[in-house]
Structures are given as C-alpha cells and as structure tokens.
Specification:
The complex is a heterodimer of chains A (about 375) and B (about 325).
Chain A lengths: L1 H6 L5 E5 L11 E7 L2 E8 L7 H6 L7 H4 L7 H16 L5 H29 L4 H21 L8 E2 L2 E2 L5 H26 L2 H7 L7 H7 L3 H5 L7 H4 L20 H24 L20 E9 L2 E9 L7 E5 L1 H6 L2 H5 L4 H10 L4 H5 L1
Antiparallel strand pairs in A: 1-2, 2-3, 4-5, 6-7, 7-8
Helix pairs in contact in A: 4-5, 5-6, 5-12, 5-15, 6-7, 7-12
Chain B lengths: L2 H35 L15 H11 L10 H18 L17 H9 L2 H11 L3 H32 L4 H6 L19 H19 L11 H4 L9 H26 L13 H19 L7 H29 L1
Classes of the chains: A alpha+beta (about 375), B mainly alpha (about 325).
Chain lengths: ~375, ~325
Amino acid sequence: MIELASDKQKETFVLNMGPQHPATHGVLRVKLVMDGEYIVEAEPVLGYIHRMHEKMGENRNWAQFMPNTGRLDYLGALSYNHGYAAAVERAAGIEVPERAEYIRVLTVELNRISSHLLWMGAYLLDLGGFTPLLYAFDDREKILDMLERVTGSRLTYCYFRFGGLYNDVDEQFIGEVKAFVARMRSRLPMYHTLVTKNVILMERLKGIGIIDADMCRRYGVTGPVARGSGINFDVRKNEPYSVYPEFDFDVPVYSEGDSMARYMVRMDEIEQSLRIVEQAVNRLPEGPVMAEKVPKVLKPPKGDYYHAVEAARGSFGVRVVSDGTNTPYRLKLRSPTFSNLSLLAEVARGVTVADAVAFMGSLDLVIPEIDR
Amino acid sequence: MNPEIVRVLGYIVAIIAFVALNAAMLVWMERKVAGHIQRRIGPKEVGPFGLLQSFADGIKLMTKQLIVPEGADVPLFKVAPMLVMIPAVMCFVTIPFSEQLAARNINVGLLLIFAIASINVFALLLGGWASHNKYAVISAARAVSQNVAYEIPMLITAITVVMFTGTMNLNEIVMGQAGGFWHWNILPIAKNIGMVVLMPVSFLIFFICSMAETNRAPFDLGEAESELVAGFHTEYSGMGFGLFFLGEYANVFIGCSLAVILFLGGWQCPFGLFPGVHWFLLKVYFLIFVVMWARWTFPRTTFYGLLNLSWKILIPVSLFNLVLTGAFIKVF
C-alpha cells in the first residue's frame, strides 16, 4: 500500500474486475491498480461464494458431507468425491474392492477429460475465440451422457461411497467409453490444427505469464500449472493411490512456464487420460463394487488423517480429524486453485489487462473451490 | 415542389431505409454464419428461417429505456450514438451501387468517404468518455489509437489505387474496370502486367485495415468482452446500444463496398455480362461473409500486437507498395 502513494503521481486508477466480469468465470473479484493499460498491482478478493463447506462437514455425519465435495470443483467433481472418500476410508480402515477402484479411476479420468475440454473452450473464449467452446462442449457432452447413466447426475456427482461405489457400470457404459476413446483420439488432432497452431493464439500465449519452478514452490502451486513450469509432480505418480500404479501413463511436463506450456500440459493430459481410460476399460476386473463390512453409522478411530488426489486442477487434499464420533472433529480441504490463484498478484504486476486475462485463464480457476 | 428537393429527400429516405434494413439482415446473417460455423443452426423461430429475428430485436431495443448512468456527461452521452450513425449514413451518398444508382456522383468521392468515415472514431471516443466508466474510457483510448494506426496504411493503399486508376471518382473507378475480371484492379492482367503482383497486396492491406477500422474481430479490441466487458458501449442500453450496433454494420458494409469498388470491379460482372446492382451486392456480401468468417474463427489479438502489425508491417509494406506501384506504372 505504501507503493500506491508514490504511484498516485503517475495517475493510476483502480479498476474492479469482477465480481461480475466475463473473464473471472464466476464471482472472483480482482482489484487492479492500473496505469493506463498496465497493471501496477493486482489483488484477488475472495469470499463472494464462501459457503463454509469445512464447517458444514464438522456439523453432519461422515457420509452426509459427500454431496458437498461435488460442489467444490463442479467441473471435476469426481476427483473431489475420490479425495474425500479415500481420506475417510484411510481413517476408518475400509478396503475398497478392486473393481470399484478401477471404476473410480475410469470415471475420474473421464471427468478430468471433460474438465480440460471445458477449460479449453472457456479459455479460448477469454482470448476472444468463440467457436472452440462449442466444439469442446460437443465432446464433453458425450462424457456427461456416459457419466449420467452410471452416476445419476451430470455435473455435481456424488457417486463414490465409503468402501466403493453407489452403482455398478453396465455393458452399455463400457461400449460407450470405448467408442468415446476412439472418437476423442480422432478429435484431438483437429483441436491442434484448428486451435493450437493458430498464429494469433501462439502470439497471445507464448512468453505470457511466466512462472518459474521456484515461484511454484513458494506458492504451493500444483497440477498442470506446476507441470507447465517444469515441476514433475503428479500425485498419481508421486504418492500413488487407488489403482493408479497398475496403469501405464506419462505425466506431461513442459519447462517454459508460460501460458502456452500450461495449455499444452492440459491438452497432453487429455491424451494420457484417454490411455488410462482405455486400459481401465480393457482390464476391468469382475467382482463387487462395494466393500462388505462398512458400518451404517461410521465412527472412525481417533486420529488425524490426510489423503491427496490429483484433481484436474492440481493436488486436492483432505485432512480429517476424528474424535471417534459419527461426525468429523475437523475437516480441512486443501484446494489447488486457491494456491494457484495466489500467483496472480505477483505475475500480473506490470503486464497489460489482456495478458493478465490470458494468464488468469491459464490457471483454470473454479471459484467455488477457492472460496469453499 | 422543387424536383431537386424531392430528389434529395428521396435519397435520404432510401439510404436510411437501406442502412437499417441492411443492418438487420447483417445481424441475421452474422447469427446464421456464427451458428453454422459453431455447429448450431442460429435463429429460426421468428419468421421463415428466423429472418424476422432482427426486427424483433429492434423492437425490443427501441422499447427499452435509455438509462443515463450517474455522473455521465448527459449531452455527450446522448450525442455519441447519433454521431456513429450520421457519418455512416453520409458515406452512402457517394457509393455507386450501379451505373445509375448513386445518390451523388462526386469527383472526389473516395476522399469524401475517408473524410466522413474518420468522424466515426470521435463518436467512440465521446461515447466512452461520457459514460463515466473506466472500461469505456480504456476502450475509447484503444479505439482511437487503433483507428489512427490503421487509417494510414488504408489511405496509402487507396493512393496506390488512385495512382493506377487516375481518378477519385468512384463511378469512374468502376467504369475503368469494365469487361471481365481480368480488367479488375485486383488482377489487372489486361491493363498492366506489372500490377498483377502488387494489387493483391494492396487489396489484402486494404481489407485488413477496413476490418480494423470497423472494430471487427480479430481486431475488436475496443469491445473485447473478456477484458473490457463491452468497451465503449458498456453503459448504453436500448437504442443507444442499438445505434452503435447499426453503425458498426453500416461501417462494415461501407468498408466492404469500398474494397469491392476499388479492387473487385464494383457492379461489373466477372465475365462482362449483365453488369448491375446485383453483382455489386453479391460481391459486397461475399466480403462481409469473409469478415464474419474471420470473426468466428480467430481469437482476438492483443492491443500492442495490433499496433505492431500496423506500424511495423502494414505501413512499411504499403509505402513500399506505393513506390513500386509508381515505378511499375511508369515501366509497363
């Protein structure tokens, strides 16, 4: 704030971007101190959609919090289901049947693809390209239809249960997934020729919003943003959980640290997720999808438990503290975009509004997940 | 009544009716083109093929209240939308739709169009400034520097055409291109073989500049909605916004019809048969389609990228083009 006083001589002005602004994708407010087109200072103001999810978790029993997880990151809800279910399973010592774990991975990866597709469309919208959104939604729609059949909902999934799943998948789902993998593989080159190789897009993304690896570590940045800055960190590989070790997939890492690198990481991740989905479908074991001995009223033993999963936007961690009763004593959610957004103040300093929008979009923000 | 006054009144009514109808049809066309590019079908409910959609929108806009924001400069705020429309309508005076169909056959028609069309930028500046809105002010500043930057290469290429045709009378420019596409200024094989290389370059520069001048995507930085919400018309509601919208489409039409007149033979038929207003409209609407196609295909450039394109590429290239044109006219 002391800097501001001196800046006044340069005739700066304050621009409130949001909470209602097309580029903030929700109710994020960014307070910008501007010098003409250039940003002198950017301050994200949070809390417009704060819903006290953590406190809600502490006031209801373990199972009742499950629907909330789908409302944190509504674009990649299944990863959040997975994170919470896995944390509670770790606390209560519940073994999940193998088939259930395979279906979890399968659906989470499908969800990741749909999340990245939506991000791609919305990001191009930020950059002024209207059309890719409609094409991305066309593919995303296929995923939503498939997931709707097995989970019962299209967006805010609540599919996982402690010890397994609410519903088994059927033959039709398997067939649809196989068809989708083939279709998506043929669509990806189209996206690359139409969007990635566009001259204007390259000019807008290359060298814009550079984050180095050190900065990522300082802010606790994870996910595609960190992997775009050369940090080879993916919870699925580094702290393997579920049945991920059984799958053969790569973690795309780019070292440029600019918006283009983050774009490429996500596009490559779609490809890798397709590989996982294909393997999961082909090797899907037979068996139950629900553990047999899960008590109706769950009372995990006293203790402090943490479980992290790789969500579409980074590492999502759930810390549960149990005091042995039927409600969590403390529930702490570590959401990836909260850390990713905190980069904004540092990166946006000295860039133009257009570049700040290009940078902010490349972080893939989902506001309810930041505010919780 | 004096027949001259009747004639003038007739032209005014006809031109304004054409501008309004044309804008309505272009909005419909834009939505249909966008729809089909985006794998949708666009408007289809109001009238056959949704043709009456724009009229429904127009009625809606006209019945809405024009809200003047607090702190706005009221007279300027209200004048700005009109100031967008007036030069747009005035430009139509000189445009020859066909040999007979032109309001005024003026000897310096080309000059007049450029003179009048540059008033347009004042309207954007005033509208942005008077709105008392930071987004609008940034957008107005962008629009002005963009217009200044793109007026220069546009004028330089216009000069190359004038050097080649030897007249600024739009009617005569078109008459000079009679008799098949090999006579057109874009590929003047029949007239000057040297210019065959240069004229397509001129056309390209002219077309890009006219897209930038009319604030069309991918150069629509004045109204870049992901950065500046709606730019200079953020605060306008109802017909205030409607006039900005109409003006934009009128300007697109003028830009494309100038390109057609200067380079694509105006109302002349590509094969020298049945010249007339239908050829002129066909060519203009084709160019407008290209403009829309570009809008729905490309992402937006950045402001500095846009200025760099003009100052570092288009202006030097067009100057070089001008010098070469002079030399080629002398040599061939």
